[in-house]
From TrEMBL:
<keyword id="KW-0560">Oxidoreductase</keyword>
<protein>
    <submittedName>
        <fullName>Acyl-CoA dehydrogenase</fullName>
    </submittedName>
</protein>
<dbReference type="InterPro" id="IPR009075">
    <property type="entry name" value="AcylCo_DH/oxidase_C"/>
</dbReference>
<dbReference type="GO" id="GO:0003995">
    <property type="term" value="F:acyl-CoA dehydrogenase activity"/>
</dbReference>
<dbReference type="InterPro" id="IPR036250">
    <property type="entry name" value="AcylCo_DH-like_C"/>
</dbReference>
<dbReference type="GO" id="GO:0033539">
    <property type="term" value="P:fatty acid beta-oxidation using acyl-CoA dehydrogenase"/>
</dbReference>
<keyword id="KW-0285">Flavoprotein</keyword>
<dbReference type="GO" id="GO:0005737">
    <property type="term" value="C:cytoplasm"/>
</dbReference>
<dbReference type="Pfam" id="PF00441">
    <property type="entry name" value="Acyl-CoA_dh_1"/>
</dbReference>
<feature type="domain" description="Acyl-CoA dehydrogenase/oxidase C-terminal">
    <location>
        <begin position="5"/>
        <end position="120"/>
    </location>
</feature>
<dbReference type="InterPro" id="IPR050741">
    <property type="entry name" value="Acyl-CoA_dehydrogenase"/>
</dbReference>
Length: 131
């Protein structure tokens, strides 16, 4: 946000005045808040029943929070323009790190499978059963 407020498209017209940038800021704020609440909920569940019993919550945050981070970083890079993909700012480093983390901590699809199987089991469906 600091960059959007300081960087001007024209004298006296910061990037932050652009409606699309304001929407990106609002979307990022909402997604960060939602991700934070999911993490806090998972942490509380881990504290109360242990990590093994909180597998679903852990899998949920592993794919959801990673995707939120990717979207927030993509928007920030877009606001920064070409500067956002250089080593002059930390955004490109964070984006590379985030993308790699989504692979080496288990692919998103694996975590989504864990969550989906759990939800479907509550409705009497065994997603592992092949027909």
């Amino acid at each position: 946000c600091r960059y959007a407020v300081r960087r001007e498209l024209a004298p006296g017209r910061p990037i932050a005045a652009q409606q699309v940038v304001q929407h990106w800021i609002a979307e990022s704020r909402a997604e960060i808040d939602a991700a934070r609440l999911l993490v806090l909920d998972a942490a509380a569940r881990i504290d109360s029943v242990g990590a093994s019993a909180a597998r679903i919550e852990i899998s949920t945050i592993k794919f959801f929070v990673a995707n939120v981070l990717q979207r927030v970083l993509d928007r920030a890079i877009q606001v920064h323009g070409g500067l956002g993909v250089t080593d002059d700012v930390v955004l490109a480093f964070w984006w590379r790190h985030e993308r790699a983390a989504r692979i080496y901590d288990g692919a998103d699809e694996v975590h989504k499978d864990v969550v989906a199987r759990h939800v479907l089991r509550q409705y009497g469906f065994d997603a592992r059963r092949r027909e």
